[in-house]
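BUG: 3D viewer hangs when loading the predicted structure for this chain

Environment: internal workstation, default settings.
Expected: structure renders.
Actual: progress bar stalls at 90%.

Input used:
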Amino acid sequence: MKKFLFYSHMSSGNVIWKAMVLTALFTFHFSLFTSVSAQKFALIDMEYILKNIPAYERANEQLSQVSKQWQAEVDALTTEAQTLYKNYQNEVVFLSKEQKKQRQDAIVEKEKQTADLKKQYFGPEGELFKKRTALMSPIQEEIYNAVKDVADLRGYQLVLDRASDTGIIFGSPKIDISTEILRKLGY
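Structure tokens produced before the viewer hung:
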């Protein structure tokens, strides 16, 4: 009989424990839900915004022209190196050991010049990067300030860019403030 009472006591204790845990979980979920629902979110479409800013289009055109010009310079050096190599291949049987060495050194030097120029123009800290930063930073800063002003005015805690975030599957047009940002910028 004592054994039965002990198990009976344990099972009612478990029921009370489970009820307390369920109450705590419900309270936690309810508070989490209310805190999340109290936050305000908005979306912007940065591609749409940028396409509607003429200064951005002009900057892109400038970058494209400069990039083509610099690429032509790199291509010219590449062609010179290839020509030196082809000439060397055609004449190698007629060259002395010393002449071979001179031609090989000339080819290697031309290839090095090509690589250096390519790095100077298109490297991670190259001229194109610097020019892009100089042209785009003011535009990006202006957009950022407009987004911040609208977010502060409307009380948004979070503004996401739907163009760059692949994690957004759906965003209601009601929370897209892209047009408002463009108006704030004067477009």
